[in-house]
Amino acid sequence: MRATMNGEPIELPDGLTVAAMLQHLGVRAERVAVERNGMVVKKARHAEEKLAQDDVLEIVTFVGGG
Amino acid sequence: MDDFVLGGHRFTSRLVVGTGKYKDFPTMQAALEASGAQMVTVAVRRLDLTAKGEASLLHWIPKDMVLLPNTAGCYTADDAVRTCRLARELQLGGENPLVKLEVLSDQKTLLPDVEETLKAARQLVSEGFRVLPYTSDDPVAARKLEEIGCAAVMPLGAPIGSGLGLRNPYSLQMILDQAKVPVIVDAGVGTASDCALCMELGVSGLLVNTAISGAKDPVAMARAMKLATEAGRLAYLSGRIPRKLYGSASSPLAGVIAAK
Question: Rounded to two decimals, what is the model's pTM?
Answer without folding.
Answer: 0.92
